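Work Package 3 (structural annotation) set out to generate three-dimensional models for the target panel prioritized at the project kickoff. During this period the team completed the workflow that converts sequence records into discrete structure tokens, so that structures can be stored uniformly alongside our sequence database. As a representative example, we reproduce one entry of 52 residues exactly as it appears in the project archive.
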Amino acid sequence: IFDKTVQAFQLSGLQIQTGIFGASMNVKIDNSGPFTILLDSRDKDIPRRRQT
């Protein structure tokens, strides 16, 4: 499925690069919008609001 998805993106004209799963990668990101949301999966089980 992954390879077919990559191929579909490439055929549509998008520049796609793939790497090795779990490898360290440098990723360039350009944020656009009024704010950025940082998600950290290590904190996903910490409750953010007091339950009523």
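The chain is about 20% helix and 0% strand.
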